[in-house]
């Protein structure tokens, strides 16, 4: 909906792995009269055949509905955007290879992502093992993690040019912990304690990763070559 506020004539195909997120989004989109401009799906971003259409209603969509194959027409999209999700994909390379043919020549690509930080090169073997364990805990496959230049080169190898990778860690990791504290104080009474433990654990984890410079949060973009 924010994208449409900036580009009123655009159409958007949105995908999330979380069925409840898709349901909430579809409900808001329908209420705003934008269902013809925004299509919401739930499924594996790297596997369009798993994408299930989400429909806004008073009843959350079933998570057991059979997958509805999603057919992507060649060169049908002007842009590909991934927000805080690429490092979860299995794998990022598979996702890019799957969706690249759907992008028009010169189409824009942008994402927020995680890469290996400057501290990884000098980290001890024990710290590297802890890093892998931490990323596994966060649901982020190790195969997705590279140092900055290799990360940029992999995007170029995937079919993009004019690739720029900007580190924005200081604007993200400390703020995440602050957000969790504020949000818990605001709505903590209606969310189970187990879920808060998960988020608080994630905040501590990313604080450690950042302080040790083991990972960086980046904004990356380029255009289809």
Layout of helices and strands:
Blueprint: H1 2-6, E1 12-16, H2 19-31, E2 38-42, E3 52-53, E4 77-82, H3 92-99, E5 103-116, H4 125-137, H5 148-158, E6 160-167, H6 173-187, H7 193-211, E7 215-224
Parallel strand pairs: 1-2, 4-5
Antiparallel strand pairs: 2-3, 5-7, 6-7
Helix pairs in contact: 6-7
- Provide the gyration radius in Å: 19 Å
Mean pLDDT, all residues: 89
Structural class by secondary-structure content: alpha/beta
> How helix-rich are the residues, as a percent range?
25-40%
- SSE topology string: HEHEEEHEHHEHHE
Please give the number of β-strands: 7
Secondary structure tally, helices? 7
Shape: globular
Distance between the termini: 28 Å
Spatial strand arrangement across the major sheet: 4-5-7-6
Strand content: 15-25%
Largest sheet, strands/sense/barrel: 4 strands, mixed
Low-confidence stretches: none
């Amino acid at each position: 909906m924010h994208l449409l506020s900036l580009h009123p004539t655009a159409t958007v195909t949105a995908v999330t792995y979380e069925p409840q997120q898709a349901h909430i989004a579809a409900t808001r989109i329908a209420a705003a009269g934008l269902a013809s401009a925004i299509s919401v799906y739930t499924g594996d971003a790297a596997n369009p055949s798993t994408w299930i259409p989400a429909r806004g209603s008073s009843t959350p969509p079933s998570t057991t509905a059979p997958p509805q194959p999603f057919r992507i027409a060649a060169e049908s999209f002007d842009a590909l955007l991934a927000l805080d999700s690429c490092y979860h994909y299995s794998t990022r390379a598979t996702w890019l290879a799957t969706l690249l043919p759907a992008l028009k020549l010169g189409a824009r690509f942008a994402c927020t992502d995680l890469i290996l930080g400057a501290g990884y090169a000098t980290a001890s073997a024990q710290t590297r093992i802890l890093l892998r364990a931490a990323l596994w805990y966060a649901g982020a496959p190790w195969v997705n993690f590279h140092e900055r230049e290799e990360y940029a080169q992999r995007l170029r190898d995937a079919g993009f040019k004019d690739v720029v990778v900007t580190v924005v860690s200081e604007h993200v990791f400390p703020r995440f912990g602050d957000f969790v504290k504020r949000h818990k104080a605001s709505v903590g009474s209606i969310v189970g304690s187990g879920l808060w433990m998960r988020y608080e654990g994630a905040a501590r984890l990313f604080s450690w990763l950042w302080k040790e410079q083991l990972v960086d949060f980046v904004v990356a973009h380029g255009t289809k070559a």
